[in-house]
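FAQ: What does a multi-protein file look like?

Like this. Sequence, then tokens, then the next protein.
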Amino acid sequence: MILVFYILNTFVNADTDSDTYSIIIVAGQSQAEGSSTSRVNLPDDSDGFYKRNYSAADSATKFWWAGADGKGPETLEDYLRLFFPNNGIAGWSQSGGAGAGDVGSQRIKTLVNGQTRSGYAGNEFVGPEYGIARSLYDKGRRKVIILKVSYGFQSLEQSNSPAIPWDWNIHSTGKSYDKLKSEFSKLTSYIRDDLDAKYTVDGFFWTQGGTDTIQPSYADNYKENLRELLLAARNDFQLHPNAHIVTAKIAYQQCVDHSFPLIGIYCGIPWGKNLEPLEFAFEEILNGRGATVQPAYVSRLNQVRDSIQEVADDYSWVDTMDVGDQPRAWDFVHLNEVGQLTVGKRFTNMYKFPYRVDEANVVVGSQVRTPTDFDGDGIANNDEDNGNSCSSGIINNQNGSTDNNGNLGDDDADCDGFPDYLDRVNGVGSGL
């Protein structure tokens, strides 16, 4: 009990020289979750990036998570059960456990105790958040909170398949995208109302797409579905005008090349011939012919990869990365611990993160920039959340008033694209 109180009290009071939190969002399916990884297997490396299980970044970075409750299908046997009634409905778990409810002080955790894994205490999944946290910490950034919502095997296409109870389509009601919106609202309300602090949303990392390669219609619609999701996300999650969305290209060629003939199991994605209606490649699995009997699968894989690239090409605030070079876990589908760390680090290097000052003052000429006044204009960060926004909206016509809403990234009195807390001058340019 004493230890729990100390951890929570430390979160509220630590780094009191800065009262602005930097939110990073991670979302997607099983690669975002970190399937087939364990925190105890995090590597040790002397180069300062790969660190043991408990690094300074892991305990300094705060974590708010919602994801699969472990009751969904993960193996071929689990999927076969979907054909029978009363198979059980997959649901959601969350940081802090079910008993935490929506109490922010119980939901907010650190990386080392945030993503609980039923039956595996102390051996939680490792997603890209570990690489993100460690890289940002090494860059000197503090007060980072990673919000992650992940659910394995969920498509971006709207789906009625029993294998996909929580698709990510923005037009679906009460599913994964709505879950992310709900969790974002709870987290930002906690920061604003309980901690009496401010925040900026400095990045969004999306890693998903494997399930949409199974069915031709899903793959055909992926580009437009992704475009809609990213446009909605930039607004719904109040991204800073300088923040980017980074997408990871799915890369399952290792799975295709090393499936049944080499490891004695079918490697996951090409199990399915169809999702609506649900069909499996029974003959191919039994005969051990691997993914080579489904050449159309490889074509759909490339179709989804191309869609991810094309959407990134269309928007200056969207970047994409390839992860095909990264090592896989035993199933040849999911990244292992080293792969997750590297992919998270790549995300932090894809664009220039919004400026902030952490811990020590920064003196530039006559300017003194501080952790409570990032632009050194003599107006505290807290006092620049004043609702002075352009009619066009600094974050894509955000709905509702921005006055004292907690978000510093949506107030722009002179309409020059620089939010007030990073703008020293009244007119074009920031003066920084």
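And here is the next protein:
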Amino acid sequence: MANAARARPDKPGEAESEAARAFFEEVKKRCGNGCQYKIRRGKHGARQYAVRFHDGQEFMINVDPGVVEVITRPETLSEIQSEKNLSRVQKFIFDVAKDLDLRTRGEFAHFNFGIMSAFKDDPRGFLKFFINYHNFAEISSGALGSDHRNAPLISHLEPEQRLALSKIVDDVNAGMLKTPQEVASRIQMEVYTATPIVKNGPEHYQGIGLKYIVAAEWPGPDQPAELRGIVQPKNAREAALQAELFQLRIECDKTDPDPIAFIDIPRQPMTFRRLARVFRLYLAEMGADWNHFKELLPAHLQNPRHSSIDAFMAGNVHWSVPGDVEDVLFYAPYVANSSWVRKRMRTLLSFPKALSSGATPRILQAISLGLGSNPNQESKRRVDSFIDSINGTGCSGVFNEFGTGI
């Protein structure tokens, strides 16, 4: 998606239409007889330009307010990562946009995935992915994008909306909802009742768009969910890296056997350090390589000043150093929803020097308060169980490969 006008209007006009036409004409010059072309009615009643390669791969050029919007057909991760695809996407989309001086200037794109191809008949896996996208709000609050007008997170919604989501999570954990479509429908009807900035369209202006999942008229066997606040990739390889990241997260959440935990973390000030820390945790939960995926972060977040590993993530806490204790406190809210944090926290708090430092009561209090106002029942159960297990630890230290306490 690329900007066609300096200010974003309420609906597309002549500037967007002319930019889309120029984009299409440039693609025709570069592809020639190697492509087939169609012009049809598209979004907002404007022209949609379709470009189809002889092997069936295709993309569409549309307009939206303030932008030219390019949409590729659904593809698997292996198809996205193939050299043939990367070369085509770079040549006919990113290079054309660059040569026409269509630039994003900080705008954000939508990342779509098919709910059936990703989750089939697994409502728990789908909702766990949905919840973790919001539990780790930093992902779409500056780490990989930030568009809170167009894509507000759950923490931006009203308390009654967050409470409604908490109840849906409990119902899924209880086995009351049988398909991802049922989950999406409940969220659409009970949670997406308002959006904080745009006055109209609460079913549309949300962090994860679900309207196509519940649309009975959506064609084909699959329906797309939209991550609506993800940064526009700079090139084809970055787009493929985004796809790889979210494929890993989907697989991680599908295979996690634990019930879903929703923590109602209030909206936080997003410092550079916070954004980089939580992205590192997001990767660690999946066993993903920081050095591989850090390229998705903006350059300033890759700066070691913000992205260096802290004492908690390194598993090397000096309990006499106040900064190390603050590192541990930072992760306290994630005890409820992250098995990785829970395991690391339990190990570190079991060391004699942790117990003798006097920091343990502060940390346990932070864990309890980190649930927020509307956590679901599983979150509360986990926190209560964790606090009880630490309070019953006594003075016996635990040491394993997962961390050290000094």
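Q: Is there any per-entry metadata?
A: Some entries carry free-text notes. For the entry above: The first helix runs from residue 14 to 31.
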